[in-house]
Specification:
The protein folds into 2 domains: 183 residues, Rossmann fold; 70 residues. The longest helix has 18 residues. With 265 residues, it is an alpha/beta fold. The strands form 4 sheets. The protein has a 5-stranded parallel β-sheet, with helices on both faces. Strands 8-9-11-10 form a 4-stranded antiparallel β-sheet. It has a 3-stranded antiparallel β-sheet with strand order 5-6-7, covered by helices on one side. Helices cover 34% and strands 28% of the residues. The mean pLDDT is 95. Helix 1 packs parallel to helix 9. The structure holds magnesium ion. Magnesium ion binds next to loops.
Length: 265
């Protein structure tokens, strides 16, 4: 039997800026955007991750779209499985599983109002110079890119309750404010991966509210000391919290995973 190690990417495994406290160790660039280095992990974290991959099925589990995920170079090469689009897409050996996409689309059609209605809602409600961009992700959900310093205090509570009344959930990840159908979850896709991989154990790591479901589902998990879950004071008995923050928390997470997968052997 096997272990699945499900890991969120942004601000869990990879970091757009080296924002930890104290000296920053040597970094490996794992993503370029517009020809410039964009995301990093420590070189030590990359080595640890390769150790994890020797003993477990590493599953990147991200809200990134397929195209955004495809830019990331995971140390050790392309994983056999990846969950993208917050569970809306399953990538198996580099190809999208269309059967999974159709099943998800059918499920979310019953869980809330259509995407077009939410896009119209956000266009009406989010206006002003603090809105830097509006995006639709893989025809599944949408998000705003905002200037956090200028974000009106009233927007998030109003937008969250407007979405909740329509079967959608809101999550804030850095400068991005996501709105997703309630039925679109990482944990549903991961449950499918665990079955397909023939695994009997799930380890998990994530920093955001959208990760809480699969952290809860895991046999053992870890979250960084920063992020949306940390801000919310989210704790579970089986979910460890890193001692460091920023890119060093990413290294601590890789080390924890390496120790946990070896414990199994
Ligand atoms: Mg994250």
């Amino acid at each position: 039997m096997r272990t699945v190690a499900a890991v969120d990417l942004d601000r869990t495994l990879i970091y757009s800026v080296p924002d930890g406290h104290g000296p920053v160790p040597p970094l490996l660039c794992v993503e370029e955007l517009d020809g410039r280095p964009h995301s990093f992990m420590t070189i030590r974290a990359a080595g640890l991750l390769e150790r994890v991959r020797a003993q477990a099925v590493l599953v990147p589990t991200t809200t990134r779209t397929l195209a955004q995920y495809a830019r990331v170079r995971i140390p050790g090469g392309m994983p056999a499985f990846a969950v993208t689009s917050n569970g809306g897409r399953l990538v198996v050996d580099g190809a999208v599983d269309h059967g999974w996409s159709r099943a998800v689309e059918a499920r979310i059609a019953g869980s809330g109002v259509p995407l077009a209605e939410v896009v119209a809602g956000v266009t009406r409600q989010a206006a002003g110079p603090w809105v830097l961009g509006r995006r639709v992700a893989d025809d599944l959900f949408c998000y705003l890119v905002v200037d956090l310093a200028e974000l009106p205090r009233s927007f998030l509570p109003a937008w969250t309750s407007w979405c909740a009344a329509r079967g959608w959930v809101v999550s804030v990840q850095g400068r991005r404010i996501y709105a997703l159908p309630r039925g679109l979850t990482k944990e549903a896709a991961l449950t499918e991966v665990v079955t397909r991989a023939g695994a009997d154990r799930l380890l998990a790591a994530g920093d955001g509210a959208l990760d809480a479901g699969f952290l809860t589902l895991a046999d053992a998990a870890i979250r960084p000391a920063h992020g949306e879950l940390a801000d919310a004071g989210w704790f579970r008995p089986h979910v460890r919290v890193t001692t460091s923050a920023g890119v060093l928390a990413g290294e601590e997470i890789s080390r924890w995973l390496a120790v946990e997968v070896a414990r199994r052997e």
